[in-house]
Amino acid sequence: MLFNSLSFTIFLPIVFFLYWFATQKNLKTQNILLLVCSYFFYACWDYRFLFLLMFSTLLDYFTGLKMENASGKKNKKTWFWISVIINLGFLGVFKYYNFFIGSFADGLSLLGIESHFWTLNVILPVGISFYTFHGLSYVIDIYNDKIKAEKNFVDYALFVSFFPLLVAGPIERATHLLPQIKKQRTFNYTQAIDGLRQILWGLFKKIVIADSCAAYANIIFNNSAEYSGAMLVLGALFFTFQIYCDFSGYSDIALGTARLFGIELLRNFAFPYFSRDIAEFWRRWHISLSSWFRDYLYIPLGGSKGGTWMKVRNTFIIFIVSGFWHGANWTFIIWGLLNAIYIMPSILFNTNRNNLDMVAQGKLFPTGKELLQMITTFSVTVIAWIFFRAESIAHALQYIADLFAGLFSVTAYREAFSYLSHEIGWIIPALLVFFIIIEWLGREQQYAIQKWGFSYSKTVRWTFYYAILMLIFYFAGTGNEQEFIYFQF
Amino acid sequence: MKQFLLSFIKFVFPFLLLLLAIELYVLYYPSTFNRKASYLHANIASTQMLVLGSSHSQNALNPEWLQLKTVNLANPSQDIQIDSALFFKYAPLMKDLKMLVLELDYFTLEEKNDAENFRLPWYKRFFGIELYRVSLINQVSVYASSPSFFNQVLTDAVNPKKTRYNINQYGFILNDFPGVMKDKKFDSLALAATAKERLKNTHTGISTANLNFNKSKLNAMINYCLAHNIKVILLAHPMYATYINNEVAEKNKRKVQYVDSLMAAVPTIRYFNYETDPRFSVHDFKNDDHLNSDGARKYTKIIDSLTAKQMISGN
Domain ranges in chain B? Predict the structure, then answer.
């Protein structure tokens, strides 16, 4: 069941009404209802993998209890590693087995050894990377005595499987979500309205911007050999907006949906394309994953405490692992590596915490320097996204080579202009400009339209919402709808 | 909560009204489907001739120009499966039915729509036919069956530059909407030069499974007609040369074999092939495989005299 589907449009109000009206606001009943609905939500995609989710939940629930009740450190460690190995084992089998086998066979063939290995013909269980990381953070926190093991199975299972975050995050922490699950929740008008507003903006990002951009990004990337410089720039730009609006749109819908049930999820995006350097970009992009890697990988590896070499090594490790988390393909690893290289100057010169606040805070326009910094950061990010989107490293390298080769060709710009005016039309670029303006104006909020129009009359504000709604409705019917990109991770 | 629900209802209500207006518009704007359904239901008892087939028949035969009281139930992408469903639903109610005109083009025998065809819910809505299970939302809303199609309809409706279809009471489109012939200024050389690219995916599908399925459906309709003294005419409509040149030989051969076997088995059936009829020039076509209004007028008159002759002589 997709957030942008008709079935979800029916599912959500039903769950909402049952949650607030049929449970008599009894916390235990509310949590059971949410868990059942979450499992139903997941089973709509493929009920067979529901058992995997349940198994993973049971595993972490019991190992958590065992760790807490362990008689000695050694015993605790044993249970900890059982959980980690099984969790990562599932992830490895379903997500990485074929990649490792294929890469190993390729390596052998380079040495002149022909080999045939057994590969798995399985589909990737949706959300496995997300719920595995939920579970891992839980057992790691128990192991490090940061939290107590959860005794109530329903509460723990809901922490792992709460439907808004189940398939594509944000990657929650037990320290943040579990206390909310265990606390009596009361309906809050402002929170619910805010939730609906965030859902509206998330749907706009996904359906209007991401899916429209995807249609053209796919055409250009899938036929990149036929296009020259400016067209390839256009393709890369379309993908850059597609991936941001697709994923942050999903996160907005997830956060907004959770708010309808009185639950606040972790913020996942904070206007990353307005970043002034790569370090800032990574503080604003997929925040729940970046902070997960920071807390459970970077810091345990020594973080930045062990001198420059240690910082460099650990930075490369977390970026490469982060790339690999995104998919079993060398393109993702190179994407991670490229970002590690991008961030290196600020790590080496200790400038990675230079830009902690939002750009041009309290001002309408950025300074010339800030604008230049934003354009530079955005441009290098676009180049990195080419690796993320390409089918292979060779494809990405060819794409970039063709892009730069034709970058200064007048004919290439004519071709791109003609493609824009005849194939794409000016509606999509105009909507992109509109989107960027709204995001810029709302960049100091949690999401762009959180406080939009509050100083205007209700009529103006509602007209704006209706316009957004109409665009969503119109674009939902264009037949361009795509699955959320992050479902495959 | 009460305040939230009230605000939500107040916000959503105008939008729901708009959706309702859109639904009513797409349901009642003059379309070939609703016109055909209205005419059929109003004249079912007095119908003398029933035309079935795809858009080839839809654009070729205007009941207005035929002497026999005719209902043309041919629609875009309509396959023999739907023809058969329409026939068996309505033929028993057509007490005066004398003639069934079926399309037997080069492509019809090996085509078959799947359950995803976006027009299938319209057959349920307008003709009460459900070949595959139509989802609840598609039963409730015509718009939901193909939002992209109806978005285009709505966009065209507010665009003064777009051609407005002039549809008569029989559901026949009288005016010529844009097509490749007009685009290429009826230049046969230009049409030939671009034909390969233009027609590379047109009716190229081959399927003996579909052939067997469609043959059984056709045979069932023919048997019904024989049993009820209804004459059957099989027609291959005029096509432009580019379309004929694009035909797959083996597919055509299978069609000819079927027609020959049918003629041998049932001598009273008449098959007329106008595919390469020299009376039709480039100016009679809208595109490679559809007649324009001039062509349709010319062709309907030919079919009119043919059917009249069939009615008198029976041969």
Answer: 31-313
